[in-house]
């Protein structure tokens, strides 16, 4: 990057090559503060977008001001006087006059600064909230601008506001920090800085979309979009500028997915599952119920992939209890019909063992041989499983991350099923994907991804949605209750247990936290057993217990020898007891919506009415909104959309897992779904015409794509 001498800029010099110190008034101290926000060049400054806008196009007469509403007024200063209330404390009063009346301006802070800047006879434009004191209209600490004393002409007072930064315009408001505010670079200072930058070096970025795309989709050229995002000439032009930047961000995300999908189809050949045979027929014949239409559709889509000869890379998503495991069983049965093995990996031993028990129950009827592998097995038992796996005597291996450890060898792995896939690290998923020559991959999640997010987050995967619950399921009655109402909740719990049902109570922590005042499951277990619910058979389950201890407690609960299971969020997945009808969640405000919905999904699995109580401390804001959403909504997809809007979408393309997607400054893949559809259409068309982006017309797209994808999408091909 070149230095700067006396603001002499070479005509046409790229903003990336011009340091911010070229702007008059930006010395080393201000440059260092800007650098803390990632602003080192003029280009960085242009990429520092406003967080909101104020509409100050309408200038009101004093007589038309409404109490409590913000307004913009232009008038002449007729009086400036300072009052001293007590030593060290003063107030500044300024009287502003227009043709309709007087407005009193008051400052209690920065009195010396304002009194030095504002003088009698000045013409000011002021912006602030109006308050009335009797018949007097007043603004306290308004923003103000002095009109250009050399200007002539356009307001009722004969003053020109066209040259002002903050009056008669749509005004950008920039993100701020205390350090930058102290250096005169708060929101107002940043507006001035941008104005100087535009005067010094108007945007001359190289276009990052092709002329065809810009014309076809009616997009603003890049440099005009930069000007309109910072200095919009109208609401319509601001909207078009925002649209351009959102569209571009979403286009490159979708371009990545489109290129990757093409590469997968061209490069990732996989074994073709030619036929359905005895195992599939036995599974279908053994079903004691009718599959939902959504389950049948899911099986058809998966079978189509498995028979294509191209490696399946499909996400199966469905709400809690929608029957995803059965769909996966059909895929694994088809693998066995074709002489291939299947791996079924789950994130916890409880969940893995639960899947194993469900499959094992059908082993005899189906004729499938199923093994279980965990990190805590005895050496002899583990060796037996590994031997049977390696010589092909096992059709299906169920396990945790132990499935991907060294020494685990399949004879012929054809299908890998990964349950609750978001709970595995990307490298763990890749290790299973790389085993035995690129097997077909079926990812499953019981945490529904919003329909609006699936395209943006998993655009390179085929997505199957099971959006029906099995017939006969009753909705779980969900209620928010304060801690003061806990005894009422426990009374309902006891009544249900006396009817022969079972219940859960879930806590967020295992032991007392010094930082957060939450009950620990271990402490509360003793209180429930000895004081609050005496006579009930209560078990404790938490993440710090040994594997065999957990399984012992779970088996007692499954068999009905425990009435109540008290635990931490280890209950969230893997616990399937149809007789359980009450879920009590302590400190529910500490959980995200996805967790709350998963916990609620542990009940309502039988024919009886079930209940979920959200016990909470005094809450407000997002926490109360989450709990209220749980009361109102039972659709996991709707809840996940609400969760995404509250918590951010996450950067599933790389290593980050919370907040907004990396690189998305203005686009939001929930709110801007329609824009994403348009960008996706363009991305797919571009790749269909030129998958290597080698055409001269795509030079700019290729250059931008390579830069973005190298930085942002390095781990996205892990599945």
UniProtKB/TrEMBL annotation:
UniProt cross-references to Gene3D superfamilies, sorted A to Z: Nucleic acid-binding proteins (2.40.50.140), P-loop containing nucleotide triphosphate hydrolases (3.40.50.300)
InterPro entries: ATP-dep_DNA_helicase_RecG, DEAD/DEAH_box_helicase_dom, Helicase_ATP-bd, Helicase_C-like, NA-bd_OB-fold, P-loop_NTPase, RecG/Mfd, RecG_dom3_C
Domain annotation Helicase C-terminal: ranges: 485-650
UniProt catalytic activity: Couples ATP hydrolysis with the unwinding of duplex DNA by translocating in the 3'-5' direction; ATP + H2O = ADP + phosphate + H(+)
Keywords: ATP-binding, DNA damage, DNA recombination, DNA repair, DNA-binding, Helicase, Hydrolase, Isomerase, Nucleotide-binding
GO molecular function, one term: 3'-5' DNA helicase activity
GO biological process terms held by the UniProt record: DNA recombination; DNA repair
Domain Helicase ATP-binding: start-end pairs: 305-466
EC identifiers of the protein: 5.6.2.4
Pfam families, alphabetized: DEAD, Helicase_C, RecG_dom3_C, RecG_wedge
Domain of life, per lineage: Bacteria
Family: Belongs to the helicase family. RecG subfamily.
NCBIfam families assigned: PRK10917.1-3 (NF008165), PRK10917.2-2 (NF008168), recG (TIGR00643)
General function of this protein: Plays a critical role in recombination and DNA repair. Helps process Holliday junction intermediates to mature products by catalyzing branch migration. Has replication fork regression activity, unwinds stalled or blocked replication forks to make a HJ that can be resolved. Has a DNA unwinding activity characteristic of a DNA helicase with 3'-5' polarity.
Protein name: ATP-dependent DNA helicase RecG
């Amino acid at each position: 990057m070149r230095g700067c001498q006396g603001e002499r800029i070479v005509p046409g010099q790229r903003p990336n090559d011009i340091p911010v110190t070229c702007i008059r008034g930006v010395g080393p101290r201000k440059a260092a503060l800007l650098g803390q926000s990632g602003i080192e060049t003029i280009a960085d400054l242009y990429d520092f977008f406003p967080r909101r806008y104020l509409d100050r196009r309408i200038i009101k007469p004093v007589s038309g001001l409404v109490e409590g509403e913000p307004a913009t007024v232009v008038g002449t200063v007729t009086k400036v006087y300072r009052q001293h209330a007590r030593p060290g404390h003063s107030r500044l009063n300024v009287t502003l006059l227009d043709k309709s009346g007087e407005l009193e301006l008051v400052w209690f802070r920065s009195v010396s600064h304002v009194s030095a800047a504002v003088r009698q006879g000045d013409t000011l434009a002021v912006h602030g909230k109006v308050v009335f004191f009797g018949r007097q209209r007043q603004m306290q600490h308004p923003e103000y601008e002095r009109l250009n004393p050399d200007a002539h002409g356009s307001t009722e007072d004969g003053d020109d506001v066209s040259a002002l930064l903050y009056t008669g315009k749509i005004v950008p408001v920039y993100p701020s920090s205390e350090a930058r505010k102290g250096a005169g670079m708060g929101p107002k200072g940043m507006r001035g800085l941008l104005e100087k930058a535009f005067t010094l070096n108007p945007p001359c970025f190289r276009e990052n979309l092709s002329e065809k795309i810009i014309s076809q989709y009616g997009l603003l050229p890049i440099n005009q979009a930069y000007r309109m995002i910072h200095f919009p000439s109208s609401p319509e032009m601001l909207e078009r500028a925002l649209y351009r930047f959102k569209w571009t961000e979403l286009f490159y995300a979708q371009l990545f997915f489109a290129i990757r999908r093409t590469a997968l189809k061209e490069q990732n050949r996989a074994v073709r599952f030619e036929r359905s045979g005895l195992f599939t027929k036995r599974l279908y014949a053994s079903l004691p119920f009718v599959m939902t239409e959504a389950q049948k559709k899911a099986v058809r889509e998966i079978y189509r992939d498995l028979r294509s000869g191209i490696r399946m890379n499909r996400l199966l998503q469905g709400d809690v209890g929608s029957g995803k495991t059965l769909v996966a069983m059909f895929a694994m049965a088809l693998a066995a019909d074709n002489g291939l093995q299947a791996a079924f990996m789950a994130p916890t031993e409880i969940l893995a063992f639960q899947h194993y028990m469900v499959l094992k129950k059908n082993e005899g009827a189906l004729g499938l041989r199923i093994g279980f592998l965990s990190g805590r097995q005895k050496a002899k038992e583990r060796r037996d499983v590994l031997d049977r796996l390696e010589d092909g005597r096992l059709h299906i291996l169920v396990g945790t991350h132990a499935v991907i450890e060294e020494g685990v060898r399949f004879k012929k792995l054809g299908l890998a099923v990964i349950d609750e896939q978001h709970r595995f690290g990307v490298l763990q998923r890749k290790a299973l994907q790389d085993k035995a020559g690129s097997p077909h991959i079926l990812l499953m999640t019981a945490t529904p991804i919003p329909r609006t997010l699936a395209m943006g987050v998993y655009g390179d995967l085929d997505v199957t949605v099971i959006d029906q619950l099995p017939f006969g399921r009753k909705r779980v009655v969900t209620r928010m209750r304060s801690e003061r109402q806990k005894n009422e909740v426990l009374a309902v719990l006891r009544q249900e247990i006396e009817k022969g049902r079972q219940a859960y109570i879930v806590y967020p922590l295992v032991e007392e936290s010094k930082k957060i005042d939450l009950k620990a499951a271990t402490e509360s277990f003793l209180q429930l057993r000895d004081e609050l619910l005496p006579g009930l058979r209560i078990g404790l389950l938490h993440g710090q217990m040994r594997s065999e201890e957990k399984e012992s407690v779970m088996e007692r609960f499954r068999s009905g020898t425990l009435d109540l299971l008290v635990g931490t969020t280890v209950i969230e997945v893997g616990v399937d007891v149809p007789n359980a009808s009450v879920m009590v969640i302590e400190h529910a405000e500490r959980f995200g919506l996805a967790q709350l919905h998963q916990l609620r999904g542990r009940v309502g699995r039988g024919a009886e009415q079930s209940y979920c109580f959200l016990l909470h401390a005094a809450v407000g804001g997002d926490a109360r909104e989450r709990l209220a959403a749980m009361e109102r909504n039972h659709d996991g997809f709707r809840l996940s959309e609400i969760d995404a809007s509250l918590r951010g979408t996450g950067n599933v393309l790389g290593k980050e897992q919370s907040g907004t997607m990396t690189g998305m400054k203005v686009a939001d893949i929930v709110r801007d779904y329609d824009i994403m559809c348009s960008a996706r259409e363009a991305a797919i068309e571009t790749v269909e015409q030129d998958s290597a982006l080698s055409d001269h017309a795509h030079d700019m797209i290729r250059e931008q794509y390579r830069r973005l994808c190298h930085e942002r999408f390095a781990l996205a091909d892990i599945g």
